[in-house]
Amino acid sequence: MAVTQERSAGLDVARIREDFPILSRTIGGKPLVYLDSTNTAQRPRQVIDAEREFYEQHNANAHRAIYFLGEEATDLYEGARAKTARFLGAPDPSTIVFTRGTTESVNLVAHAWGRKFLKEGDEILLTEMEHHSDIVPWQFAARDTGAVLRYLGLTDDGLLDLSNLEALLTERTKILCVTGMSNSLGTITPLPRLIEAAHAVGALVLVDGAQLVPHRGANVVELDCDFLAFSGHKMLGPTASGGLFAKRELLEAMDPFLGGGEMINEVFHDHSTFNEVPWKFEAGTMNVAQEVAFGAAIDYLEALGMDRVREHEEAITAYALERLSEVGARIFGPTDVAVHGGVVSFWYRDVHPHDLATILNEEGVAIRAGHHCNQLVMRRYGVPATARASFYVYNTVQEVDALVEALGKAESVFT
Ligand code: PLP
Q: Which of 56, 138, 313, 323 is in the most buried spot, having the most CB atoms within 10 Å?
């Protein structure tokens, strides 16, 4: 345990917590223990201030006004795009399309790339670990194009089962869609190996970075992924912020997703021509203030350093896995923290996760219970739901202790 605490010293968590006003709340007279960042993270004052300041000082629509405020709003919005590109190691800002987050980004690709380039008999390779937002849009694309869905399965210990990778990844595969980090099992997937194998058969790769980007960071050039989807609200930013990285030649080849203002070049009675990328994919008024504040979230994470964020999470996760195992919880997902990000799914005794979450709530401990939009994972492991605790830059080992202590209370109520 001493090692755990020492290793987590990479971040000054006490100092960080001061930046998050919500963490000083009490729930029913008990300090809030927020263990649901995988669902949505809390926001530091710097992000809240950036959004407020935008409305107080700079509010105008981006790309639509030549007056002073309009130019300021445009500069701030495009500045956030440049920060996002830098954070992801993207070659240039035009490869970043702002969206409402991962769900919209995957839908964009499934629609704008899928409907144009998939045809009958083509295969889309998914994994059973995918969030519903990286399954359902592909089901729609398969239905509309005649393409076929295939799935990589899971091993008993929560890893991707790669034993039949070669059989599943063939010249018929046009795209592999894979999460970088599972939101229910915590599993960090072997992206470099998967991307290399997919490219070797000519398939593109879409990485669902909803969890990977906030918790481990990602460099799209090193990964050589074709698409990377991410959500601002899971990495300290506002809701409805985030976006999609895509290689520029793909964005240029794809048809637009939504039609409307600003995504056009010229509009005629019977057809239109389209704006350059990335604006071709940003129809209508965007979430300007939210993306600007998302830029502030990136500043915040960069100041902490993603290596330190990762180290901190590994330490807390190792501690949580150890403590939960000690008290006899059944853990879902890998036990090795090198491949287990900061989210731990478990069953405690035979208490249903919803009952557990209800009792924990009375102790001020906020965890998520449910299928986590991962019904294929739940089915694979034969449970309807799991209890899930997840960690971020502001969580402490003491909060893991509070979780374990609260589990003891749940046990006395239900067994
Ligand atoms: N993919 C993963 C792995 C997720 O964890 C989530 C959200 O929990 C999503 C996709 C969907 O993200 P959003 O709701 O921000 O679009």
A: 313
